[in-house]
Amino acid sequence: RAKHDGKNTYRFFDKAMDALMKRRVFLQQQLELAVHREKDLSLRFQPQVDAATGQVYGAEALLRWEISAGEWVSPAEFITLAEETGQILEIGSWLMENLFQQMAIWNAKGFLFGKISMNISSVQLARDTLAQRLLNLMDKFSIPYSQICVEITETTLMADSEMVTENLKRLKQAGITLSIDDFGTGYSSMSYLKALDADHLKIDRSFVIGIGANESDEHIVRATMALAHSLGMETVAEGVDSEEQLTFLQKLSCDYIQGYLFAKPLKADDFEHFVKERQWAINTSEDGIDD
Ligand code: C2E
Ligand code: MG
Ligand code: MG
Ligand code: MG
């Protein structure tokens, strides 16, 4: 009997593994096509708002993949896969080209969008040409370096690769803003933080969720804010979706807020409307106070 169960269990895992492998291969092939077809990938912009004034600081650019009509694959799944297969290099190039093109359009029409954050994976940063290619592309589209922030995860720092450090230094020297993403989920030490001289620290959504619900998460958020500010960094809280979280973060002088409370990741046009409506609302309410 036991033997029989074991066999069934084996078959079950075998089948599950098989399905996983098939999905991997399928996604990998489809992703290859998507990058070349270009239409299946798109960008969203999630607003980042100044916690004290409510003014729009900028947005994080986030990648979207529509694998077939109405069917979307989450970035959490396909970015991880693309990092493993190396496809992230092509995807990263697609992102840079399309993002800078969009920013050039906005700059040309005088739309003030603030600063755009882009995610860069450690696989890209391990390439010796990354920083130079990014700067060259920005030059090609006449994008001022001050308009871009590069987000890297703690894990990227932990790789402790000389190439990664060189690329980040080069970007920093050029005037690009550097941000540590998903802070608290990895294992970065204080010495990495100091050495990199990053400008922003983004506290991960998993801790923000705990505000008002989990005391140790609140302690972590408080300590992280204090650490960042004492190192002279600005702080961004991601995944803020309630007023209670916002108030808590404002009390800690958190600098910028990103989350569903203000907006989900938006299409370029919708981001433009969001900014215009919001600045208009802020200006009129300030006028109101002055009277
Ligand atoms: P991330 O960089 O930490 O991005 C923030 C994620 O949190 C986004 O998920 C965003 O939609 C989500 N989020 C923000 N506010 C809220 C909220 O209030 N509630 C909830 N439930 N979610 C919120 P998304 O777009 O699915 O991206 C997931 C991850 O995929 C990103 O995490 C990033 O690591 C990666 N990613 C996305 N686009 C790119 C890209 O262009 N390049 C690279 N290398 N990675 C990317
Ligand atoms: Mg990010
Ligand atoms: Mg993040
Ligand atoms: Mg995160």
Automatic annotation (TrEMBL):
Name of the featured protein: PAS domain S-box protein
Keywords noted in UniProt: Membrane, Transmembrane, Transmembrane helix
One BP term from GO: regulation of DNA-templated transcription
Organism lineage: Bacteria, Pseudomonadati, Pseudomonadota, Gammaproteobacteria, Oceanospirillales
Highest taxon, organism lineage: Bacteria
Originating organism: Oceanospirillum linum
Annotated ranges, domain EAL: 24-279
Shown chain mapped onto the complete sequence: 592 to 882 of 882
